[in-house]
Design goal:
This protein has about 350 residues and is of the alpha/beta class. The protein contains 10 helices and 15 strands. The strands form 4 sheets. The chain has a 7-stranded parallel sheet, with helices on one face. The chain has a 4-stranded antiparallel sheet with strand order 4-5-6-7, with no helix packed on it. The chain has a two-stranded antiparallel ribbon with strand order 2-3.
């Protein structure tokens, strides 16, 4: 579960951006009609009205697509946990009956109501704040593994098992390419409808959150990226740059240095989260080799070790070091390397923001 950053918190911390995204959550219900709930450690939170969980005898909590208990559960929070793990609901694969259309069920033309919501919300954000608007309209995250199991669908078809999907990027490459080809067509059609509605009120478009890296390097080859993903990244980026003033954003964790040249060539303006703790992702060489051609959005502090487990002094030192490396010449947006994790000491968070202010002064 991720927390929503409210306006008062954003102002208190000096955050410069605000998100504009789809109204539905990862489990298929809308983020509205908030109600009270408690995390397993007793922390009181607000959750959407469609948040409809069921406890199991072992203490785990089940989550359901669209909050519908008549469908098989699609998420599980282990006892004592903070996140719902997606439950893979993979039907047996019959190679002779595999149809790319089954993996396209979630990609469809944008509705008039969603289009209206984007227009109204972007107008409100533009007129009432001086923040940069970062939009995620969905539909262009080719192979985003968080979405492949489709926890928002009641009965997903096609290839939905995580391991099976990764195998398919090599063993069934024609199938995956056909999925991406139709997905790209739908995604570009949607962007053609969205762009006139939101216009220049959006500054950044998150194109994809597909992870290509592990701690030790990419988990697909450069050749596979070029054959299977890059053509569609180029198509989206080319359309955005030809028709809008938006900057395009790719999120990919891990050691992706061998792919960065191709990300740039595919037209991405921004790389996130810049996982400096992964092999080959040291801050200095990244800035030296790519800093004049792509903006690094992240890399500000390690959220695996330093921020949750370091001292405030260690946090301050790492933040200042990363700022010294990444800021010369521009092309840097300070951000933690990934989401701030549960149980991170408040003292460390304050040390991070204090170091930012110290550097800015």
């Amino acid at each position: 579960m991720l927390g929503e950053v409210t306006d008062d918190l954003r102002e208190a911390l000096g955050i410069d951006t605000v998100g504009l995204g789809a109204p539905e959550t990862l489990f298929g219900y809308r983020a509205e009609n908030w109600k009270e709930w408690e995390l397993m450690d007793g922390t009181p939170v607000l959750v959407p009205g469609g948040f409809n969980t069921e406890p199991e005898s072992n203490g785990d909590i089940l989550q359901y697509p669209e909050g519908d208990h008549s469908a098989p559960p699609s998420g599980r929070m282990p006892e004592g946990g903070y996140y719902f793990d997606t439950i893979v609901r993979q039907e047996p694969i019959d190679e002779d009956r595999l149809d790319p259309a089954d993996n396209l069920e979630e990609f469809e033309p944008i509705s008039d109501s969603d289009l209206r919501d984007y227009g109204e919300l972007s107008g409100t954000l533009f007129s009432s704040t001086d923040l940069a608007v970062v939009a995620n309209f969905g539909g262009t995250g080719f192979g985003d593994i968080a979405l492949v199991p489709a926890p928002f669908l009641k009965h997903p078809k096609g290839i939905r098992d995580v391991e099976e999907w990764y195998i398919s990027t090599v063993a069934r490459q024609d199938y995956v390419y056909a999925v991406f080809e139709k997905q790209c067509e739908i995604g570009l059609d949607n962007l053609e409808r969205i762009a006139p509605v939101v216009g220049d009120r959006v500054q950044v478009l998150m194109v994809t959150g597909t992870d290509f890296g592990t701690q030790r390097g990419p988990f697909i080859s450069v050749e596979t990226y070029r054959a299977l993903f890059k053509p569609f990244h180029e198509a989206v980026n080319n359309w955005v740059h030809a028709n809008t003033a938006w900057k395009t954003f790719i999120h990919t964790c891990g050691g992706v240095r061998p792919l960065i040249e191709d990300f740039i060539d595919a037209g991405f303006d921004i790389l996130n989260p810049v996982q400096c703790s992964a092999d080959g992702m040291e801050a200095g060489p990244l800035k030296r080799d790519f800093g004049d051609r792509i903006t690094f959005w992240g890399g500000g502090i390690d959220t695996q070790r330093t921020l949750p487990f370091g001292t405030p002094e260690e946090v301050r030192a790492e933040v200042l070091e990363r700022l010294e490396i990444f800021t010369p010449g521009g092309g840097f947006v300070f951000n933690t390397i990934h989401n701030i994790q549960p149980r991170t000491p408040v003292e460390n968070l304050l040390a991070m923001f204090d170091a930012l202010r110290e550097f800015s002064a």
